[in-house]
TrEMBL record:
It is an enzyme of class 2 (transferase). Its EC number is 2.7.7.65. Keywords: Nucleotidyltransferase, Phosphoprotein, Transferase. It comes from the Bacteria. This is diguanylate cyclase. GO terms for molecular function: diguanylate cyclase activity. GO terms for biological process: cell adhesion involved in single-species biofilm formation; negative regulation of bacterial-type flagellum-dependent cell motility; phosphorelay signal transduction system. Residues 192-324 form the GGDEF domain. One of its GO terms (cellular component) is plasma membrane. Residues 27-142 form the Response regulatory domain.
Length: 324
């Protein structure tokens, strides 16, 4: 193991013979400003990975910011800049937080190694670097990274699933309930009105009874699309239950909400829903109840109740109408 600090390992072990099992390529960024050392690492790793090498501080930051790396290897013996400082900068990047860092230190440089570990680098290698050890440590970091990525992805999916209605892709009732209190509180604080719409498809049971539940589902999906197309980005649209939908509109008074509701009602009335089976076109209508938040002591429950009363009144007085 009497190799030089740079260019070590070359000729001792042929990198090509050390990789037997093949896993999906890891994307590795090597940060080293001594060309022979960079070339050695690159040749040791490129058999089973995509390796990019950079030799300046700025370029390293830019590349990591661009995402797309599974592992960063930082030499702590560079001439041009301080690898430790780079590690700390990488750790503070949002894009760099989940990328493992492997540092390479000179044998005996305990001070640098301790600083690096303190900073939260994931693993280290000491020079002279042994090819097998390099490959093993890189594999371990890549495996952990893949596992962590998968975990994070799954968490993300289940978080989304928990607040999304599966049939329509709109928010679900749970999400609405969680946010309505905040929105009401915000409307009080900012002294701005908040409008609450509840919509119900007229005689929807007939759709199911005549054409089947799956055609009913298609109608619900199309109705949800029309709701989304008619509300603003700041409005909160959700499927409240079966064929009832709710839209919460911050900073909106009743006349404005009424205009939106009327536009939606007319669109639904005048544009039949295309469905996948006979009769292919279904005419439906909707009824809408509107309520506005009122005063400091108003609650989500009271607001919902008033909107529901308005909806009930719309149904009672003939359906296919908006009542505020
Ligand atoms: P109206 O509202 O005009 O008074 O009449 P309606 O027939 O729409 O009344 P109701 O609210 O009683 O019926 C709603 C129907 O919606 C009953 C139920 O079978 C149907 N439904 C609820 N959830 C779903 C769903 O996810 N898919 C389908 N296809 N139908 C659903
Ligand atoms: Mg209903
Ligand atoms: Mg009903
Ligand atoms: Mg209905």
């Amino acid at each position: 193991r009497m190799r030089e600090a740079t260019g070590q390992g070359m000729g001792l072990v042929d990198p090509a013979t050390t990789f037997s099992e093949s896993i999906s390529a890891g994307r590795i960024l090597m940060i080293e400003d001594r060309p022979d050392s960079a070339a050695w690492f690159s040749s040791a790793l490129r058999k089973e990975n995509d390796v990019a090498c950079v030799d300046t501080f700025e370029e390293a930051l830019v590349r990591v910011r661009g995402g797309d790396f599974d592992l960063v290897i930082v030499s702590l013996g560079m001439r041009g800049f301080d690898g430790l400082r780079l590690c700390s900068q990488l750790r503070s990047l949002p894009e760099g937080r989940h990328v493992p860092i492997l540092v390479v230190v000179s044998d005996g440089d305990r001070r640098k190694l301790n600083q690096a570990l303190e900073m939260g680098v994931n693993d280290y290698l000491t020079r002279p670097v042994d090819t097998n050890e390099l490959v093993a440590r890189v594999r371990t970091q890549l495996r952990k990274k893949r596992y962590a990525d998968r975990l994070r992805h799954n968490v993300q999916l289940s978080l989304e699933a928990a607040i999304t209605d599966q049939l329509t892709g709109l928010h679900n009732r749970r999400y609405m309930a969680r946010h309505l209190d905040n929105l009401i509180e915000q409307s009080h604080r900012t002294a701005k009105p908040l409008a609450f719409l509840i919509m119900d498809i007229d005689y929807f049971k007939k759709v199911n009874d005549s054409y089947g539940h799956d055609i009913g589902d298609e109608v619900l999906q199309e109705f949800a699309r029309r709701i989304s197309a008619n509300v603003r980005g700041c409005d909160l649209a959700c499927r409240y239950g079966g064929e009832e939908f709710v839209v919460v509109m911050p900073d909106t008074d009743v006349p404005f909400a009424y205009a939106i509701a009327e536009r939606l009602r007319k669109t639904v009335e005048s544009t039949p829903v295309m469905v996948s089976r006979d009769p292919h076109k279904l005419g439906i209508t909707i009824s809408i109840g509107i309520a506005q938040s009122a005063g400091k002591n108003d609650t989500a429950e009271a607001l919902l109740h008033r909107a529901d009363q308005a909806l009930y009144s719309a149904k009672r007085t003939g359906r296919n109408r908006v009542v505020a």
